[in-house]
């Protein structure tokens, strides 16, 4: 950014010569970021300026930027003066007019005073006392007004004098600038001319560039064309090659296809053989199954015979004992018990031997597995000699002995063997480890000799560890308690060890370990309050035992607290520790025994490090609910190095200054290290080297460090080479430009050449051998120093005093970078910090800076005004420093875009030598800044970043600085400008919600002030604070006190006294009716109970006199009439409330009682969700049960397989050992069950109200219900007049009253537990006279004893309660018997209330008398079934269903009117087309000529089972064309009752295409006489057009006609002949038809229009064609319009239809 400012203002004089402004377009080469005043572009510009059209000999002086700024200020000042003159002239004229009006008023008052004085004299003479007092009071009032008017006249005169003085002063000031204004006009004209010239110059340049671009485009087009031709040629060659290749390989493809065909044939033969073998195998399997079934039957019969024989023997024994005189029962019982004992003993011995065999088999398998593992991994087991070499000393032996006493872990535990990490990879690593152990032993022996402390003491300084001490100052309170305490040891359970008969010592030990492992794995699930505990049962504090930064030889202790976090009592037992930690960690833990939830116990962990390595593992425990482990970590000392910053910015600095920046290097680890701080790269953009030999920023000294073996740097040689290559590429790109910008016209000095030579030498050295580099650099150390100094003079960046040192643990140091620029420009330097610790990475520090060479500089390059608001004044001070030795003149300039918003004072000043100068900056941003700031203002973010300039006399380069600010508005915005509360009754309040938004990014306080008393703003009474860009919701509450129109204003003020107003209006309404209670509070009502209450609606409007009392009206509208007034309550949907009466009429002075019924119920959605939850839980439990059973079954099978394997192994132990690995006798077969099967829970949609799941969920929710509270607002609409038909009585919604109902709901006392909790006892459909008894069981779910009473059922109804009620204790149940005997064929419904005093349980009793009912699902319209159209001679069938919805079987019979005996009698009536009103409507229409029925229904009679349906097939088979086929259908039940009566009709067409819905030209009844055949073809054999009549009627209005519109339908018959043509090519085409209207243009002038004029009709469909007739202009309404149009139909044949159109006008 600074470079851009330098370029912008550095070339100002050059731009001023050619008249350029800030917006001028500079044309300089691409890639050249700097404006080079000596480039070829300047010569082109000069030549261009010389070729201008106007005369160059007498050039007019151009207007500089400073002059333009002066002109802008002068014009602004003149405009302000002009505005002031106009303003004061307006005020003067206005004051003079006020003075004139005041004097006229004085003259009028004086005249009136004199007239009143004369009247007073006349009244005194007449002695009229009353008139005298009135006139004197009037005289005093007039005199007072005269006095006031005189004072007002004096004030106006003073104000007029002041305004005239101000006007004169402004005019004098304006006159001073008359000459300056003339000059300004000339200069503005000259400036406009200069801008025009500059635009012409830009235009010429753009034209030249456009021509050049056109030529380049043409050249690119030619190249593209050539490339396309070449590509086309290559593509053609490729295609030809492909064709030749295809011909060559075609023969090989044929051979391959033949081989594939042979292979497929072979596979088919093989597949057939396989299927034949499979069928034979299945047949054999079937035979085997049959034989097995017969064998099983024989075995079963044999078993039955044996049982029968045993029973026979028992009976004989019984008879024998009876004969001997004994007790057979006693003797037989004793024998059975003896037999049972013997059998149990035998089973026990067998089971014992089986278990012993299983254990021995497992032991043998474990031994074999251990031997195999020793062979495969011998490095896991060491010999005793190597174990002795690892013993560290006497104390180690003692620790190991204690550890062996305390642990009960098995050496055969696979998990422990996996955790063992002390595995050596080879003999070399074992030797290295042995040497380390020996060194540790020697160091420990020396420590013992030097210190008199005990062996287990330590000097550790770790704050988190406890050091062992022998001194114990604790004294017991009671003697003898502590002396008897001994450390807890893990019992070995030697007494309970199972003794193996004839077992070796090794087998006994292995058995003991295995039994311990089994005992430790036994866990118990912990369930409390119905929930099973899952997770870790004990919480450890700390959660990880961490010995951090330990030292070898010291001893550390940590105390660990274990807390029981399970639900109930638990136990804790220490098991073991990770194998690799046993030599270093000692655990002291006394089992606390039984621990309640929340209790804690302590454990002491002692760590004695002997090797300097990180260790990790776990401490294993076993609790009642399962095992758990505590992680344990031991970490050595490490380095943790970081810096507080990775980038240091020195900003902009003047050449010659020295800046220092420090940063902190911190070591957060416990291990110290050495560091070295040096520079890696230098000034990348200003390096004076060639592209071939540039080293970038790498100096000679840095190269020595990078390649020296003694250096502590960890930078690899490859990284250094990569950085050199990268720097070379960067320098090659910008070397030439950097030379010109930084060095100017200076030549290449010797120092630069020396730097280049050094760079070349380093490049060569970097590629050569490292030893040669070191030797060359050691031979010439002075060269490196001189190169470093030379490079530092160009770069300016160097390391401070501290370049290397040692950083201790937990320490930090300050490192310094010195910036002393000598050449102007930007510098980007990289420094590197390397460390001696091999595990620590190097840290890179980047330092950037910018150097300038001006003597005058600003302390703050960026003046940050933070966040500013519009139209608020902000000030700041600009401090300018002068480093020169002479005084300088300064001139402050503001960019023209901010002239009206920002000002620097003073504009010109002098700064003394070696001093500073302070300027005042005033910033007043206005709203116009948004448009005027231009590119300096970001309209999206509101950030203003404007450049300012300080011009120094005799200096071409100005001093720039930047003013930054974030502009924000102080507006607060409402989401609405007007609030219309509408109409509100005087008994209620209306609430309107508004949103107040803070548009500013600063917080603002607000408050509503001055609002009327009938308005309230909440929350906080309308006061608060808005955070930046925050929107809050406010509520405006309008509570009118009387009926009138309200208009008021809400005023919201901010803390800076800005006002934001909202216009509000509302209408107060006094309704004709009022309610005795606006709010109803129901008492606590249980679910499915009912509570009722009442209130009154009062009509107190008896008089329309508004002066005596308030009258009902809407605002200031008409007063409501006195008379009967009606009301209607509308309860919200879903509310458990009922209002009775909801509609009524009240006479004046009367009142009407209203009853409100509250019946709460559970939400249906909540019940379904609970049902889904319960079903999911049940499915999970079932899946878990199945999983456990399957797992148990597989385990039993595995045990049986293991027993068989043990039995086989005992016979041939040596013979089976080689084949053990094949898996035939595997002791632990894998389980196939991986877990419970996945379940698919039901969805809410699948739960119906009648399902048992729904009822169970409802009962469950009733028991768990905790109560709720809801409020409802019910509107009551009011209208004057009596109630009548709905919608006839006019009413006003503004008179609506509102009733608020509060409904608390509690848990019920009684619930129904029978029939899944359903409270509806449905007896279903019962025959008349039949008696059915059902029961319902209720339960008391409360904690109190209740006394039950019931309501009385209808004595004349079918329901009867058979048993009495009783007192129910808590959780008690009672069964109620209900009898149902219907006597009528109807539905019965009653409600039985079971009352407890505080609530009632409603049991709904319902039943239905049986009455036969059937339903037919035919698509009929107005009782007519339309079969559609069919070709004459074909038939059409449709199938419908007839359903029996009753519980009885129904006999039906279907009859046709055409077969009725009354048909001929009805046909004797006068036909309908002869009658005027066509009252006769015969159901029987045209019939077949062949005597067969046109319509037929099959089956015509039969029986429909209850709840089922049958299919009815309707057949339509006409034998000749006609549109009037119809017949009547009647369905009779049981031969008596007629339930359904409808009409069926259809049409028969001669061809598949036809026209429908035209006017009838013939009667709808066919004549019985023989008709003369009509010619349908002409002489040429073509079909003659068929005429049809189509009438349109337009309705006449006053001055216009309504266009007539009517649809004509074109249909296509689905013929059976077309459907049978499956393979015919024309089948699909002939199945559909086409139509087209011809000569439509002939009827268009008469006002006819057809849409669409052509189209396609699918088979079996009708397509509408809309005819529209609009009477043309000048049409005679009394004259009909006739026209015709030809319609061509293309189906099986092509025919034409002449549509005769007739249109006329009718009256409305």
Folded structure, characterized:
By secondary structure, the protein is of the alpha+beta class. The chain is built from 24 helices and 77 strands. Helix 4 crosses helix 6.
Identify the notable features of this structure and list them briefly.
1708 residues; disordered N terminus; 30% strand; 6-stranded mixed sheet; extended; alpha+beta
In short:
This protein is an alpha+beta fold. Helix content is 33%, strand content 30%. The strands form 18 sheets. Strands 30, 32, 34, 36, 37 and 42 form a six-stranded mixed β-sheet that branches. Strands 39, 40, 43, 45, 47 and 48 form a six-stranded mixed β-sheet that branches.
Radius of gyration: 57 Å
How far apart lie the N and C ends? 83 Å
Strand content: 25-35%
Task: Assign a percent range to the helix content.
Answer: 25-40%
Low-confidence region ranges: 1-58, 394-433, 443-488, 492-497, 683-793, 1212-1228, 1618-1629
- How many H/I helical runs? 24
The major beta sheet can be summarized as: 6 strands, mixed
Mean pLDDT: 78
Inertia-based shape: extended
Strand count: 77
Structural class by sheet pairing and helices: alpha+beta
């Amino acid at each position: 950014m600074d470079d851009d400012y330098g370029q912008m203002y550095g070339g100002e004089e050059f731009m001023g010569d050619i008249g350029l402004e800030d917006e001028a377009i500079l044309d300089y080469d691409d890639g050249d970021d700097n404006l080079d005043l000596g480039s070829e572009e300047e010569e082109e510009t000069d030549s261009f300026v010389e070729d201008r059209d106007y005369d160059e000999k007498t050039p007019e002086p151009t207007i500089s930027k400073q002059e333009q700024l002066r002109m802008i200020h002068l014009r602004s000042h003149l405009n302000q003066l002009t505005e002031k003159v106009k303003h004061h002239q307006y005020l003067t004229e206005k004051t003079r007019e006020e003075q004139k009006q005041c004097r006229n008023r004085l003259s009028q008052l004086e005249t009136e005073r004199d007239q009143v004085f004369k009247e007073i004299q006349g009244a005194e003479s007449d002695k009229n006392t009353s008139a005298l007092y009135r006139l004197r009071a009037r005289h005093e009032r007039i005199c007072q007004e005269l006095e006031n008017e005189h004072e007002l006249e004096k004030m106006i005169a003073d104000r007029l004098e002041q305004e005239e003085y101000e006007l004169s002063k402004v005019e004098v000031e304006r006159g001073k600038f008359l000459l300056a204004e003339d000059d300004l006009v000339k200069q503005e004209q000259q400036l406009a001319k200069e801008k025009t010239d500059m635009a012409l110059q830009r235009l010429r340049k753009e034209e030249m560039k456009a021509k050049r671009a056109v030529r380049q485009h043409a050249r690119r087009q030619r190249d593209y064309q050539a490339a396309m031709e070449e590509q086309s040629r290559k593509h053609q060659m490729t295609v030809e090659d492909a064709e030749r290749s295809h011909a060559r390989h075609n023969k090989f493809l044929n051979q391959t296809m033949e081989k594939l065909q042979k292979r497929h044939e072979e596979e088919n033969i093989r597949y057939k053989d396989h299927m034949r073998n499979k069928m034979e195998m299945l047949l054999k399997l079937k035979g085997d199954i049959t034989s097995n079934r017969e064998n099983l039957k024989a075995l079963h019969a044999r078993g039955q015979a044996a049982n029968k024989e045993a029973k026979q023997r028992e009976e004989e024994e019984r008879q024998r004992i009876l004969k001997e005189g004994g007790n057979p029962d006693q003797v037989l019982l004793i024998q059975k018990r003896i037999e049972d004992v013997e059998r149990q003993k035998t089973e026990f011995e067998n089971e014992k031997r089986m278990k012993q065999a299983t254990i021995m088999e497992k032991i043998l398998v474990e031994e074999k597995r251990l031997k195999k593992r020793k062979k495969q991994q011998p490095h896991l087991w060491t010999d005793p000699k190597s174990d002795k070499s690892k013993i560290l000393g006497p104390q180690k032996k003692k620790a190991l002995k204690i550890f062996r006493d305390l642990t009960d872990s098995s050496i055969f535990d696979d998990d422990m063997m996996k955790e063992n990490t002390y595995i050596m990879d080879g003999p070399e690593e074992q030797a290295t480890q042995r040497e380390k152990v020996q060194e540790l032993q020697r160091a420990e022996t020396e420590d013992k000799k030097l210190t008199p402390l005990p062996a287990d003491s330590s000097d550790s300084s770790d704050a988190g560890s406890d050091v062992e001490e022998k001194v114990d100052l604790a004294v017991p309170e009671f003697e003898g308690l502590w002396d008897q305490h001994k450390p807890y040891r893990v019992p070995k359970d030697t007494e309970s060890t199972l003794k193996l008969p004839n077992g070796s010592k090794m087998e006994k030990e292995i058995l003991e370990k295995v039994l311990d492992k089994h005992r430790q794995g036994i866990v118990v699930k912990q369930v409390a309050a119905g929930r099973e505990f899952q997770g870790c049962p004990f919480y450890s504090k700390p959660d990880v035992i961490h010995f951090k930064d330990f030292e070898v030889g010291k001893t550390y202790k940590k105390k660990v607290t274990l807390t029981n976090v399970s639900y109930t009592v638990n136990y804790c037992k220490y098991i073991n520790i990770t194998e690799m930690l046993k030599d270093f960690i000692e655990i002291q833990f006394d089992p606390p025994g039984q621990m309640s939830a929340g209790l804690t116990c302590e454990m002491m962990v002692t760590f004695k490090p002997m090797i300097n390595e990180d260790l990790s593992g776990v401490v294993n425990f076993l609790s009642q609910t399962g095992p758990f482990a505590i992680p344990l970590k031991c970490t050595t000392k490490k380095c943790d190095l970081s810096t507080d910053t990775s980038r240091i910015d020195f900003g902009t600095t003047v050449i010659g200054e020295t800046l220092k920046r420090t940063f902190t290097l911190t070591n957060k680890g416990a291990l110290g290290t050495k560091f070295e701080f040096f520079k890696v790269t230098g000034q990348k953009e200003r390096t004076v080297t060639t592209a071939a030999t540039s080293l970038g920023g790498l100096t000679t000294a840095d190269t020595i460090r990078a390649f020296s073996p003694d250096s502590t740097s960890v930078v690899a040689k490859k990284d250094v080479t990569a950085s050199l290559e990268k720097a070379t590429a960067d320098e090659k790109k910008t070397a030439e430009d950097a030379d010109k910008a930084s060095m100017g016209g200076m030549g290449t000095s010797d120092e630069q050449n020396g730097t280049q030579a050094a760079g070349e030498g380093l490049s060569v050295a970097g590629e050569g051998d490292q030893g040669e580099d070191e030797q060359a650099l050691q031979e010439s150390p002075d060269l490196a120093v001189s190169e470093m100094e030379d490079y530092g003079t160009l770069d300016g960046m160097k390391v401070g005093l501290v370049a290397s040192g040692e950083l201790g643990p937990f320490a930090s140091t300050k490192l310094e970078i010195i910036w002393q620029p000598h050449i102007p420009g930007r510098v980007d330097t990289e420094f590197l910090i390397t460390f001696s610790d091999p595990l620590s990475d190097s840290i890179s520090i980047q330092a950037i800076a910018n150097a300038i060479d001006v003597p005058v500089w600003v302390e703050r390059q960026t003046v940050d005004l933070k966040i500013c608001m519009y139209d608020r004044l902000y000030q700041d001070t600009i401090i300018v420093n002068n480093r020169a030795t002479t005084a300088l003149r300064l001139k402050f300039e503001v960019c023209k875009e901010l002239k009206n918003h920002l000002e620097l004072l003073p504009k010109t000043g002098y700064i003394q030598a070696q001093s500073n100068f302070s300027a005042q900056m005033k910033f007043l941003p206005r709203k116009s800044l948004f448009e005027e700031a231009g590119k300096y203002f970001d309209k999206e973010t509101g950030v203003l970043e404007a450049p300012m300039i300080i011009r120094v006399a005799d200096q071409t380069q100005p001093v720039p600085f930047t003013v930054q600010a974030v502009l924000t508005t102080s507006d607060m915005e409402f989401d609405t400008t007007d609030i219309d509360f509408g109409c509100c009754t005087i008994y209620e309040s209306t609430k309107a919600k508004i949103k107040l938004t803070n548009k500013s990014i600063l917080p603002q306080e607000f408050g509503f002030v001055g609002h009327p008393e009938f308005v309230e703003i909440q929350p906080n009474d309308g006061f608060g604070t808005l955070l930046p860009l925050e929107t809050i919701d406010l509520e405006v509450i309008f509570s009118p006190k009387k009926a009138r129109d309200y208009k008021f204003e809400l005023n919201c003020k901010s803390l800076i006294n800005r006002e934001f107003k909202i216009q509000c209006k509302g209408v107060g309404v006094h309704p004709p009716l009022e309610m005795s209670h606006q709010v109803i509070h129901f008492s606590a009502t249980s679910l499915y109970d009912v509570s009722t209450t009442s209130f009154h609606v009062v009509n107190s409007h008896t008089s329309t006199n508004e002066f005596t009392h308030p009258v009902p009206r809407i605002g200031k509208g008409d007063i409501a009439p006195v008379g009967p007034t009606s009301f209607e309550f509308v309860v919200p949907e879903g509310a458990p409330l009922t209002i009775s009466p909801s509609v009524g009429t009240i006479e004046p002075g009367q009142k009407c009682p209203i009853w409100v019924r509250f019946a709460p119920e559970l939400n249906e959605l909540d019940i379904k969700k609970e049902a889904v939850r319960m079903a999911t839980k049940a499915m999970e439990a079932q899946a878990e049960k199945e999983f456990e059973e399957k797992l148990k079954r597989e385990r039993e099978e595995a045990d049986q397989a293991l027993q068989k394997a043990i039995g086989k192994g005992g016979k041939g132990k040596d013979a089976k050992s080689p084949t053990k690995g094949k898996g035939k006798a595997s002791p632990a077969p894998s389980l196939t069950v991986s877990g419970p099967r996945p379940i698919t829970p039901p969805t809410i949609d699948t739960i119906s109200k009648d399902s048992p799941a729904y009822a169970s969920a409802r009962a469950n929710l009733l028991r768990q219900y905790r109560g709720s509270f809801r409020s409802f607002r019910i509107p009551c609409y009011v209208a004057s007049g009596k109630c009548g038909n709905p919608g006839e009585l006019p009413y006003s919604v503004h008179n609506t009253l509102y009733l608020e109902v509060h409904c608390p709901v509690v848990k019920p006392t009684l619930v129904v537990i029978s029939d899944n909790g359903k409270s509806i006892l449905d007896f279903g459909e019962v025959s008349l006279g039949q008696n059915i008894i059902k029961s319902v069981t209720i339960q008391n779910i409360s904690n109190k004893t209740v006394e039950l009473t019931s309501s009385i059922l209808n004595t004349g109804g079918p329901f009867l309660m058979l048993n009495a009620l009783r007192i129910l204790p808590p959780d008690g149940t009672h069964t109620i018997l209900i009898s149902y005997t219907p006597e009528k064929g109807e539905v019965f419904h009653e409600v039985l209330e079971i009352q407890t005093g505080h609530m009632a349980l409603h049991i709904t009793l319902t039943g239905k008398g049986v009455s036969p009912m059937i339903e037919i699902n035919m698509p009929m319209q107005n009782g007519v079934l339309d079969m559609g159209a069919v070709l004459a001679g074909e038939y059409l069938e449709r199938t419908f269903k007839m359903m029996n919805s009753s519980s009885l079987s129904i006999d039906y019979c279907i009859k046709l009117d055409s077969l009725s005996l009354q048909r001929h009698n009805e046909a004797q009536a006068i036909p309908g087309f002869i009658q005027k009103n066509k009252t006769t409507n015969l159901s029987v229409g045209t019939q077949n000529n062949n005597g067969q029925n046109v319509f037929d229904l099959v089956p015509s009679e039969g029986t429909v089972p209850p709840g089922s349906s049958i299919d009815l097939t309707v057949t339509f088979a006409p034998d000749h064309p006609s549109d009037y086929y119809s017949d009547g259908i009647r369905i009779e039940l049981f031969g008596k009752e007629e339930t359904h009566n409808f009409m069926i009709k259809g049409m028969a067409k001669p061809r598949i295409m036809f026209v429908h819905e035209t006017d009838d030209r013939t009667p709808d009844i066919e004549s019985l006489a023989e008709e003369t055949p009509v010619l349908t073809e002409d002489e040429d054999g073509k079909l003659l057009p068929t005429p049809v009549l189509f009438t349109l009627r337009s309705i006449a209005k006053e001055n216009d006609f309504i266009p007539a519109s009517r649809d004509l339908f074109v249909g296509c018959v689905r013929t059976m002949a077309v459907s049978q043509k499956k393979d015919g090519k024309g089948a699909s085409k002939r199945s559909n038809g086409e139509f087209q209207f011809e000569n439509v243009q002939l009827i268009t002038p008469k006002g006819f229009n057809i849409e669409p004029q052509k189209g396609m009709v699918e088979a079996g469909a009708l397509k509408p064609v809309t005819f529209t007739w609009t009477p043309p202009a000048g049409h005679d309404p009394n004259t009909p319009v006739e026209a015709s149009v030809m319609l061509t139909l293309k189906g099986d044949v092509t025919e034409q239809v002449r549509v005769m159109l007739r249109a006329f006008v009718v009256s409305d």
